[in-house]
Amino acid sequence: MSNEHLLEFAWGLANSGYTFLWNVRPDLVKGHDNAVHLPEFSAATKGRSMLSPWCPQEKVLEHEAVGVFLTHSGWNSSLEGICGGVPMVCWPFFTEQQTNCRYKCTEWGIWMEIGEEVTRTEVKAILREAMEGEKGQEMRRRALKLQESAVASARHDGRSMRNVDRLIHEVLLA
């Protein structure tokens, strides 16, 4: 993302008033080895934010304290969010991310999308709606329903495991 996008996300998060964990990889900003954070941002979010270059995302998303997952909408992140039963806000920017986001917004109703030219006002408004609004409550209900299905599918006798077993027997052991 551009430095301008980073600043819009940062101030949108800060202005939302919520506590947050934000993974900011060193290569996040185009043309920079390190994403730059303003002292004003750190001061505005002191005591309610944690910035990190990495975290065990799957474990974090399974925690009951997580209210919403702001993601680029890659497939692995999508699955981890679904398995965690977490509603998502997405900002897709390349490869399959747009397709994943569009499908989960329109078909499954567990996502809200931030526009391509992100603004701090939009980030704040979408986070508030996802956390407290009617649409956010419906997203949470749907996300929990999808989580139940994903967990059931991954059980020893679940759909996914039966399909893996069938693949092994029909392709690898045939």
UniProtKB/TrEMBL annotation:
Transmembrane segments: none
Superkingdom per UniProt: Eukaryota
Keyword Transferase: yes
Pfam families: UDPGT (PF00201)
GO molecular function, one term: quercetin 3-O-glucosyltransferase activity
Keywords for the protein's UniProt record, in alphabetical order: Glycosyltransferase, Transferase
Keyword hit for Cytoplasm: no
Entry's family note: Belongs to the UDP-glycosyltransferase family.
Protein name: Glycosyltransferase
Species of provenance: Triticum turgidum subsp. durum (Durum wheat)
